[in-house]
Amino acid sequence: MGGIIMEETNAHEVKYDDNQIRTLMENKLPEMAKYMKFIGTFTLVVGIVYCVTIVGAIFGIPMYFMGRRLRESADSFLKYRRSNSGQDLYNAIEKQSRAFFIQYVFAIIGLVFMGLYLIIMIILLVSGAFWN
Prior knowledge:
The protein is mostly helical. The chain is built from three helices and two strands. β1 (7-8) and β2 form a beta hairpin. It is elongated and about 70 Å long.
């Protein structure tokens, strides 16, 4: 792990001291923020494209906000890295959790639609709708 000494406490937990955590944060936060900004921008643009149609706006508007929250979260993580302010870290995590909540809702809606599709297809197959 790049020279970081870890103390294993059990099979699932590894303890880091404060300096090791600071080093990890300094090295990983800019990289993570870069990825978050890209995914946020991509999601934001796709959301705007979906908003071209009225039906697409149902998905586009939440996608726009999800992308925006990811970009704001990335900015707050970078701000936290510079300032070491607890408020900046709180803002970053709070905005990231909002983005993930929107994605969570999308996933559940997608699973519900997939389940309905499968049920309808099974009913149509059993009823013979596809037989000539």
